Amino acid sequence: MFYRPGLDAHGLPHNPFNAIVTPRPIGWISSRGADGRDNLAPYSFFNAVAYTPPQVMFASTGSKPDRGDGKDSLGNIRETGVFCVNIVEYAARDAMNASSAGFGRDVDEFEEAGIAREPCREIACSRVAGAPAALECRLTQIVKLPGAANHVAFGEVVGVHLRDDCVVAGRFDVTRFNPLSRLGYQDYAVVREVFAMARPGEG
């Protein structure tokens, strides 16, 4: 089949786009507003985008009546210029899902979903206690994308937390915590096995 988004009807019960670009890592974004209130929300349009300096991005693709053209995470980051990316392990799937509810801006998702927090070290923000890894970030830019409420926030990583049990023989071992990833529809996947392949010429 073939269709042109925005021009043709795909004829399927649900939009297939999110099911095509998979699996997608989940950025569990913690932020803090200028009023000192914490926020925590998962974003599946998330990834690392550069090594030196290390940089990440996440896209906010919706809006809330009490936030205008974005969501709480984006609003907080605009106010304070910092955020933290918490890596989601399989064991935290229910807590992550609970934090995705459409709460008002005055609700603290850490409290609402019963998620323990710890302070970041380099930025004024909370992080998920016990997460396999957390990336403390300073905002570099927010880019407005086509569409009513599509924005991408880019951040430079200024602090990295690695849970001790996930570092094995000098490597960050994802099989120790099983990363959760987003598929399409209401589907998720979990990483339980890995394999290695050397690039041509690398031996």
Structural account:
With 203 residues, the protein is mostly beta strands. It has one domain: Electron Transport, Fmn-binding Protein, Chain A (Pnp Oxidase, Chain A), CATH 2.30.110.10. The protein has 4 helices and 14 strands. It has helices spanning 17-20, 72-80, 93-98, 109-112, and strands spanning 24-25, 27-32, 38-43, 46-50, 55-60, 82-87, 117-119, 126-128, 133-144, 151-162, 167-168, 171-172, 180-182, 188-190. It has a 7-stranded antiparallel beta sheet, covered by helices on one side. A 3-stranded antiparallel beta sheet has the order 1-13-14, with no helix packed on it. Strands 7-8 form a two-stranded antiparallel ribbon. A hairpin with a 5-residue loop joins β13 (180-182) and β14. The longest helix has 9 residues, at 72-80. The radius of gyration is 18 Å and the shape is globular. The mean pLDDT is 95.
CATH architecture: Roll
In DSSP terms (H or I, runs of 4 or more residues), the helix count works out at 4
Give the C-alpha Rg.
18 Å
Low-pLDDT stretches are none
Organism: Rubrimonas cliftonensis
Domain Flavin reductase like: 19-174
GO molecular function: FMN binding; oxidoreductase activity, acting on the CH-NH group of donors, NAD or NADP as acceptor
InterPro entries: Flavin_Rdtase-like_dom, Split_barrel_FMN-bd
List descriptors:
mainly beta, 203 residues, seven-stranded antiparallel sheet, three-stranded antiparallel sheet, 4 helices, Pnp Oxidase, Chain A, globular, 35% strand
